Structures are given as C-alpha cells and as structure tokens.
Amino acid sequence: MANKKGRRRDFGSVRQLPSGRWQVRYRDPTGQLRPAEKTYATKTDAQVALTHIESDIARGQWSDPDAGAVNFADYATAWLRDRKLADRTRERNESVMRLHILPTFGAGTVADVTTARVRSWRGKLLAAGVGEPSVVKAYQLLRALMNTAVDDELIRRNPCRIKGADRYDVPERPVLTVAEVLAVADSIAPRYRLLVLLAAFTTLRFGELAALRRRDIDLEALTVAVRRAQAELQDGRLFDKAPKSAAGVRTVSFPAELLDAVTHHLEHFAASGRDGHVFVGPQGGQLRRSNFRDDWVKARKAAGVTAELHFHDLRHTGNTLASTAGASTRELMTRMGHSSSRAALIYQHMTSDRDRALADRLGAMIRGGGGVTSEKDPAGP
Fold this sequence. Notes:
By secondary structure, the protein is an alpha+beta fold. It has three domains: 7-59, GCC-box Binding Domain, CATH 3.30.730; 72-151; 178-368, hpI Integrase, Chain A. Helix content is 45%, strand content 9%. Helix 2 runs antiparallel to helix 3, helix 3 packs across helix 5 (132-151) and helix 6 packs antiparallel against helix 7 (193-201). It is elongated, with a radius of gyration of 30 Å.
C-alpha cells in the first residue's frame, strides 16, 4: 500500500512512505537504483530534490553519498603514510594527528566531518589551553586531509571553511642592537661565542649552524656555505637533511670583523678534519639544542637582554640589521634562504660583490658597537 502513491517519471520517482513523508529514488550513473539521502515533507519538495539530483548527474557533479562512509582514522593513517615527507615533518604531523585530530574525528567516517563539527573542535582545543600555533597546525593538517578526500570523491566539499583559522598573529619578536648581540656573545661559554655571532650576522638557523663543517667556511672569501641542516627526532636521533627548497642552499658572506673570531673558533673548538663539525657539544659530540639551552639562558641573563629572547631571534635581528644596511627584499630573501610561490617568480641570486658589501656594512655596525674582542685563554673542548 505504501507504494501506490508513487509516481514515475523519465528520471527516477517519488513515493509516499507509511510515515507520510516522501521518498526519492533514482538510478545513479552506474545504473544502480538508490534512494535519496533523506525524505521530504511534501511531494513537491521530493520532486524538486529529484530534479536537482538529475541536474547534478547531467553536469557530472553528482557524488556518491555513500562514498564518505570510510572510517576517518583508517583514511587519515593511509593518507599520512602515503605522503612524501621529511622524517621530522612526518613525525610532527603524526603527533598532531594523534593528539589533536583523531580523538575527535577518528571513530567516525570521513563524511561525518562537517563544518559545524570542525568549528566546535577548534573552539574546544583553544578553550582547553592548546596553543594557537598548535591549533592552526592541526586545522591546516585536517584541511589538507579533507582536500584529498574531495579529490578522492569521498565528499563533495571541504568542511574546513572557517575564516582565519589557518593563521594566527605572530607576536613581534625582540630585535637586539649590535651592542646587545656582542654582549650576549661575550657572556656565553667561549665554545658558543661564534654560534651567536654567525646567527646574528649571517642569519643562519640553529640547524644550519649545527650542520656546518670546516669545509663550509672560506676564510679568504669570508663566506659560509649552507648545504644542509641538522634535525632532531623526538627519540633524540640527529640527522642532516637537505634544505626545504633550492633557496636554502646558499653562500652567505660574513663581516671581515668576524674573521678573527672564526679563525679562533676553528683553532680551538671545532672538530678536526675538513668534515669536522664547526660547532660541537661540551663533550665533543654533536651540538644539540638541549646541551646549548642552559648556556644560552645564562648568557642572556648575564648580558641583561630581554628574558623573552629566543636564539632564533638572533636571525630576526640579523635580518633587521641587514635591511638597515640597505638590503632589498629580494637580497634579504636570498641571504636568509627564504622561498615561496611568490618569491620563486622574482628569485634572483645576489652577486658576491653585493653580498660582500652587505657584510662590510654589518662590519661597520660591529665596530660601532664596540668591536669583537679576541679570546686569550679559551676553555678546552
């Protein structure tokens, strides 16, 4: 009796159910007869819905409503496994997925992830005290995953559509004066003095400095060649990795005023041999953030600089100083090893003469800040 009120048409049909609601049935592009995802209060509503389904199929925009019935955790695990990622990046992504995404979405299906649920999930993370950078990273990872789900035709539209959720305002980092940089360098353990100076006046990252070998430093040309960067996994393993982009492989000039400090360091603190690390830990092993952190904090306090200063702020300081010295945006990006889609369009290598001029201007700043003194009685390695 339930079917007697049904009405057939060229595409699909509508019928009234015992509940009084109306059901839509149609054949999908494979010829399979299937009901619509929901029922309708009136016959007219059902007919309109059937017309929309017919239009979607005709335009090739129809998606299988059952496609998203894939377990989210299984799909996310396979997605991460199949991505080509550096070891450290993979480790970070797996951690974000495990800590912040799977607890909320893991037990459901891909189709269960709606914009409303994403908005609620994000709000709960922030309310629970998860740092905004971590929440942004989690949101970006979820959005990338759901983009793939759209490409795989599991869902029709990415539910991660929250305006502003993919970014956050980075607090303004402190910028030291040249005199303050020199004060920190003079306050730190002698084996790390050059580390501070190069971080500020070549803007190399900690990982790039930790990976430097003797052969990367040219004392005649006054340059440092960046070919690799050290990374550390959560289990403590250290390894060298290639820079993230072609722009990361670069040669950076350092001020002539640092030559004595560079020479002194190579003579007294660097590991031996052309492939020996320029910077090593207190026991002669590879430099780690953990065996440098205490010395950094002590030096920062002894120099009387802001307690909020991170080692990476020396790179920000160096960038600001180079800009003050007259570097253009393109020159700064090249010196710092920055790369982006926009930068790739305008990327040009700086000439060695121009880079030399920048380093010379930085040297003049060092002289104005009090100069770099030589160590008379270095501590042994």
